[in-house]
């Protein structure tokens, strides 16, 4: 039996798939889960009920579908649920957008769309998954479908300068420095990145720093002690207040609220770090 959680990615797909998580979770009652900004594209295939999703700040964007593909974004999504969620979620790299979906990540930036609209060639995948009852078979079906997509599409990723710029921005290098390193003006670099990922260099860097802080929070919580000041410093924020402001902008809540919602096992936090 396949254990639910992160699954190993086949070597052929590792440049294009950052992760695949199989999930079957009881959330204790109806509610809303936060879909946080990331430097990866999010590809969700629900199995128990259509995915009911919207942008947190725009209730009119709410829709339900048996698949969801969303590009990079600098605002939270809201995933509405009835208390139980089952499915498969993948994180695709920027290179994976072209190689597996056949389009640049920018075409899906800030969008919540279904597979049939985004990639007609994969439109049958949700129905084929629903016909299977075994997790091993489901995951192998997804890998097989993505392998076929890779053979159909051109696996060539964004031009080398764009890839280098994204890597440097992810590490927190200043935008002006990155532009100098790749030999472009800031304006030209901005145009190239918007055409590839749909975000400006500064927006991409903010999302990357936010993503880094999220990983640090999870690691600190797992270790049993969370210091927001330490997380802020290690993630590249000016201070704890800066960290909190960015979380409110990008996640729609302070980090303490997110930890209370998503990391209920955290028991040992300083009093000033407890959610109000």
Provide a short characterization of the protein structure:
The protein is an alpha+beta fold. Helix content is about 45%, strand content about 20%.
Provide a descriptive summary of the structure in words.
It is a single chain. The chain is built from 11 helices and 10 strands. The N and C termini lie far apart (41 Å). It has 276 residues and is α+β, with helices and mostly antiparallel strands. β5 (51-55) and β6 form a beta hairpin. The longest helix is centred in the C-terminal third of the chain and has 23 residues, at 201-223. The protein has helices at 94-101, 115-118, 125-130, 135-152, 160-170, 175-182, 186-197, 201-223, 228-235, 240-251, 255-262, and strands spanning 5-7, 17-26, 31-35, 41-46, 51-55, 58-65, 68-70, 77-81, 84-92, 112-113. It has 3 domains: 5-152, Jelly Rolls; 160-198; 209-273, Arc Repressor Mutant, subunit A (Orthogonal Bundle).
Q: Unreliable runs, pLDDT <50, ≥5 residues?
A: 266-276
The percentage helix is 40-55%
Backbone CA Rg: 19 Å
CATH superfamily of the largest domain: Jelly Rolls
Question: Structural class given helices, strands, pairing?
Answer: alpha+beta
Q: How is the biggest beta sheet arranged?
A: 6 strands, antiparallel
CATH class of the largest domain: Mainly Beta
CATH architectural grouping of the largest domain: Sandwich
Widest β-sheet, arrangement of strands: 1-2-9-4-7-10
Strand elements, count: 10
What do we call the CATH topology of the largest domain? Jelly Rolls
Q: Shape from CA axes?
A: globular
- Report the β-strand fraction as a percent range: 15-25%
Averaged pLDDT: 91
Gap from first CA to last CA: 41 Å
Query: What pattern of helices and strands is seen along the backbone?
Result: EEEEEEEEEHEHHHHHHHHHH
How many DSSP H or I helices?
A: 11
Instruction: Return the domain count.
Output: 3
